[in-house]
Amino acid sequence: MAATAPLTQAATQPELTTDALVVLGVVLLALVLFLTERLPIDVTAILLIVVLVVLEPWTGVDPATGISGFSNDATITVLAMLILSGGVARTGLVQALGRRMAAYAGDSVRKQLFATVVATSPVSGFLNNTPVVALLVPVVTDIANRGDTSPSKLLIPLSYASQVGGMLTLIGTSTNLLASDISARLGEEYPELGAFSMFEFTQLGVVVVLVGAVYLVFVGHYLLPERVPAQADYLEEYDLGDYVVEAAVVPGSSLVDGTVGEATEALGPEVDIVQIVRDDDRSVAPRRETHVREGDVLVVRTDRDAITTIGDAAGVELVGDPQSDADLAADEGLITELVVSLDSRLVGERLDLERFREEFNAAVLGLRHRGEPVGDRLVGTRLDVGDTLLVQAPPETLDRLSRRDDVIVAREPPRPNYRAEKAPIAVAIMVGVVAVAALDIYPILLSALAGVVAMVVTGVLEPNELYDAVEWNVIFLLAGVIPLGIALEGSGAAAYLAWLVVSTAGFLPAIVVLWLFYVTTGLITEVISNNASVVLLVPVAAAAASAIGSNPFAFVMAVTFAASTAFLGPIGYQTNLFVYGPGGYRFTDYVRIGAPLQLLLSIVTVIGIAVIWGV
User: Fold this and answer.
1) What is the pLDDT of residues 532-556, one digit of tens each?
2) How far apart (Å, rounded) are the C-alpha atoms in residues 44 and 50?
3) How does DSSP assign 404-431, residue by residue?
4) Strands 334-340 and 363-369: what pairing?
5) Which residues contact 522 (CB under 8 A, 6 or more apart)?
6) What's the rounded mean pLDDT across residues 58-81?
7) Which GO terms describe its molecular function (predicted)?
8) Is 92 left (phi over 0), alpha (psi -120 to 50) or beta?
């Protein structure tokens, strides 16, 4: 290994052509859109395709190249792996593993953390880690509640464990598959590069998982505050005391024999009737056509101003307000949290309480938006990924919602409807997919597609469930950033950026330059998607390595590992968003536990790369 990083002939300054400037302008546009989130991520990806093709004389991206991302091996493989992960999810296998570990954990925080890591990291090496976290959020929350532990102590470690686990195999994350595809394409220019094998970096991945697990179990929980108390009262956590009241329908009221819809219109647009109490029976999330009777007590969720209006309204009389979850409890209604998922139809929608009730059969009691409780006005709040809705719904509704992709139910449904009898078949199919690819019998693309067909033929998945299992915004993101990567390489922009790195860091030891690429990738991933950071930095890293006479494969590995370990905030990785609301976290909580872990893994990973592949 070279002691320093001497500049080679390849490091002579490349010409900054008009083509390169135009492509760098498109890259800047992409960064701004990803950072500001002015457009949904999939819409941004489509816009990039359009811009690149329109600017073809400078970008070199013709219409065929522009849409090539949709037929790219990485895109199709990610699609197939998401479907396979969905099939395993339908069997309840991951949840069963989580519950088995919960039985071991008891009330020891370290045992609970150990159970969380063991149930998450190995599975994330073979199933896409995004659905793994979505499946385990309710399991881990229940582990915390049963052990009288704050869920805040376990949920960020759940997300981080899934990220490091994704580095165990090629199929652990979409980022690995995309990096493999880019590396194969760059192999024409750099002989050291090529597509990754199934277990190309498993040796280093195991080291990263073990170091991350030790940190999370023995150090991390000391750095996390108890944002959500153990066995928290939701009414208190969501600050609902001033917004949920009970109003009795008095004799002679105009509301008598009318419907819930008519009562809502009479009481005002900010009013949502979440329960009707009649003879000690509570009707949860009553439909608009439900009739109101004399003596009914309407449990109403509204804002402060509307409460005064209700108190002055004819036909009803305020009789109090619930003081705790127990006051709202009903045999037919459970209070829980719903997290808005990555590909949910709710993303970008303004909250409409009545429409939500009609679609989901659940009454909205509260909302956490960007980690903070929304106290006064819920109606019209624009929902985003990771927002958490506090709802009350019948048990059968939670069962149904747990099988939908719009929301993540933050507690296990009481009567889960899994296809447990299909679990051995699903495992056998996944083993077959991995084995065929690992033995180089057929490429991972073909074995994964064959696995999808096998899932349907064997009844693990119904044909209509295939599309629900796919995170379509991820697919569109891949399709959009792949041609951007092609333009970056073809225009010479990647070579110019590599020269800038080399010219400023060429006097440093090669291993330090490698570490700088790891850190830079990690920081960029915090503000844009991990897939976008790989597309932008893998070509630059390969060119920079070649320019200083180092191993391009080592630099590609550093970028790949760094892009899949985003620990500094909720935005950098989608699993961090999934635990944001249920954990009651603040942005600084991620930095507090994530910064030391990021630094630790940067050192461990870079040293591991140097030992295994050489710099």
Assistant:
1) 888 888 998 998 888 888 999 999 9
2) 10
3) -SSEEESS--SS----GGGHHHHHHHHH
4) unpaired
5) 562, 563, 565, 566, 568, 598, 602
6) 88
7) monoatomic cation transmembrane transporter activity
8) left
**Model pLDDT for residues 490-531, shown as the tens digit of each residue:** 888 888 888 777 777 667 888 998 998 899 888 888 877 788
Q: Are 135 and 93 in contact (CB under 8 A)?
A: no
- How far is residue 276's CA from residue 131's CA, in Å, rounded to a whole number? 36
Q: What is the CATH number of domain 242-321?
A: 3.30.70.1450
Q: How many helices (H) and strands (E) does the chain have?
A: 28, 10
In DSSP terms, 300 is beta-bridged to 245, 273
Which DSSP letter does residue 465 get?
A: G
Cβ count near 386 (within 10 Å): 26
Distance, C-alpha 367 to centroid of its chain: 19
DSSP, residue by residue, 530-569: HHHHHHHHHHHHHHHHHHTT--HHHHHHHHHHHHT---S-
Of 95-104, 231-240, 336-345, 447-456, the range with the lowest mean pLDDT is 231-240
Q: Angle formed by the axes of helices 152-165 and 587-612, to 10°? A: 30
Distance, CA of 277 to CA of 279 (rounded, Å): 7
Which amino acid type is present at position 218?
Answer: F
The answer to whether residues 539 and 182 touch, using CB atoms and an 8 Å cutoff, is yes
Q: How far apart are CA 434 and CA 168, in angstroms?
A: 13
Structure tokens belonging to residue 244: 């949920």
Q: Residue with structure tokens 């760098």?
A: 24
Sorted by sequence, the CB contacts under 8 Å of residue 3 that are 6+ apart come out as 509
Residue type, 63: P
Cα(599)–Cα(127) distance, integer angstroms: 26
Per-residue pLDDT averaged across 210-225, rounded? 91
Distance CA 524, CA 562 (A): 10
Q: Retrieve residue 606's tokens.
A: 């870079």
Domain ranges of the chain: 242-321
Q: Which residues of 457-466 are buried (b: 16+ CB within 10 A; e: fewer)?
A: eeebbeeebb
* Separation between Cα atoms, residue 556 and residue 180, nearest integer Å: 9
202-215 vs 109-124: helix axis angle to the nearest 10?
A: 160
Give the three-state DSSP class for 321: coil
Pair of tokens at residue 201: 């970096």
Beta bridge partners of 318: 247
Closest CA to 142 of 96, 90, 99, 94: 99
Say how far apart CA 91 and CA 77 lie, in whole Å: 22
For the stretch 334-363, pLDDT in tens is 777 888 876 677 877 888 877 887 788 888
Within 257-299, residue ranges assigned H as helices are 260-267
160-178 mean pLDDT: 91
